[in-house]
Amino acid sequence: MSVILSNYKKPEQANYYRPSNLPQARNPVYQKEVSLGCKFCVDKPGRKKIYHTLYSLHHHFTHEHSKEPSYRDISIRIADLIIEGTIL
Ligand SMILES: [Zn+2]
Q: How far away, in angstroms, is 39 Cα from ligand 1 center?
């Protein structure tokens, strides 16, 4: 026997995508338009890639620099700077 829960919505889900510093694709802070570069790719030759949302930079971190222990912390720190208005 199965129960269909598709129409059931928890009350807290209405505010699920509130701005926060946590890396989530639908977090408005991570979708804000900014210009960011990757600190791990600075020394690589070739044209420097610019990431226009923090989520795209975070996505790059998770795929290219997942062995760097601090990449998630970097994303969270940048999110804090966006929230406090240092990065516009
Ligand atoms: Zn990189």
A: 7
Distance of CA 20 from the midpoint of ligand 1 (Å): 23
Count other C-beta atoms under 10 Å from residue 76's C-beta.
Answer: 15
Task: Report how far ligand 1's centroid is from the alpha carbon of 16 (Å).
Answer: 29
Mean pLDDT by 10 residues, the chain (88 residues): 60 68 93 94 86 96 93 95 91
Helix (H) or strand (E) holding 49: none
The domain locations on the chain are 11-84
Closest residue by Cα to residue 82 from 48, 50, 40, 53 = 53
Residues 6 or more apart in contact with residue 67 via CB below 8 angstroms? none
